[in-house]
Amino acid sequence: MAFNLKKVLKALLLSSSQPLAIKDIQAAFTRFHEQIYLPGTEEKVEAAEGKAGGEGEAPAPAAESAGEAIAAAESAPAPVEEVAEVLAEAPVEDPELYSDVPSLVTAAQIREAMDAIAAELRLADEGMLLIEGNAGYRLVTHPRFARWVRILRQEPPPVKLSQSSIETLAVIAYRQPVTRTEIETIRGVSAEAGINKLLERDLIYIVGRADTPGRPIQYGTTDQFLEFVGIKSIDELPASDVLSSRQIDEWLKNSANTHTPTDTDMGLADEQLPLEAAPAGAAEAGAAQAGEAAPASETAADASTATTEPPPAEPNPA
């Protein structure tokens, strides 16, 4: 009977509560061939006479009488029986599981077997699913049984993220590592509440500090975010024209170089509105009034000068 890889993988999945990666499965097959099986042996009980002590020790003197021997036996502590560990007899091994085990199982063979197991579980519709996450394969309960699982664990129902938190999470996922200032620049509103909520849910974490003045904190997504979205890596996020790196860089650059908006920026035509025509002769009248005002001012200045000058002195008659 040929080796059944699918049965072995199903048993390994059921035996572990942690995700099972392909490298872990390959390591298990490697250890299988490295193990050394020792046959069970029976321990022989050695005679106490002449064996308990060392070779150089003198034998104990014989009792002179039967009474002394009985008294010595009663006063001596009872000997401790040594319990020998005996290996249990190995059960008859199933040739489908332990015969012709390959020394190397390729990743393609493991994925093919896992896909077959996942298809069988979906077809059986017994509440179990096999999913592949970023850390490996794992058996999970079907989402329709989530209420029963929460009742068993006495957990409250999940709380949905607000629209603001989802927008903040999207910016971090596509832009990471990203600072709070960049998030607020892109969204146009404060992001402090959304970041704190995402940190509490373990969907984002602090990556480090940016190499800019002030050393602001940078944020990135966690492995739990990948499970929350249902992907294995960030590369599987759908392409977004709105949150592309090129467009975000352009937004941040434009926000740094702010300028006064013009009519063109606001969508208006860049042209001057016509002014009302001035009445004919208005300019000439204004010039004439200006010309007339000048002599009047000069006359006023002459009058003031004449007033301030002292009158000429009259000759004194002899």
Query: N-to-C terminal Cα separation, in Å?
Result: 167 Å
CATH class of the domain at 163-256: Mainly Alpha
> Major beta sheet, specifics?
3 strands, antiparallel
How much of the sequence lies in strands comes to 5-15%
Q: What is the average per-residue confidence, as pLDDT, rounded to a whole number?
A: 74
Structural class: mainly alpha
Rg over CA atoms, rounded to whole Å, is 49 Å
Low-pLDDT stretches are 38-56, 303-308
Number of helices: 12
CATH topology of the domain at 163-256: Arc Repressor Mutant, subunit A
Shape: elongated
CATH superfamily of the domain at 163-256: Winged helix-like DNA-binding domain superfamily/Winged helix DNA-binding domain
- In CATH, the architecture of the domain at 163-256 is Orthogonal Bundle
Question: What is the share of helical residues?
Answer: 40-55%
What is the helix/strand order? HHHHHEEHHEHHEEHHH
Protein architecture, described:
The chain is mainly α. Among the domains are: 5-35 and 94-139, Arc Repressor Mutant, subunit A; 163-256, Winged helix-like DNA-binding domain superfamily/Winged helix DNA-binding domain (Arc Repressor Mutant, subunit A), CATH 1.10.10.10. 44% of the residues lie in helices and 8% in strands. It is built from 12 helices and 5 strands. It has a 3-stranded antiparallel sheet with strand order 3-5-4. It has a two-stranded antiparallel sheet with strand order 1-2. Helix 7 (163-175) crosses helix 9.
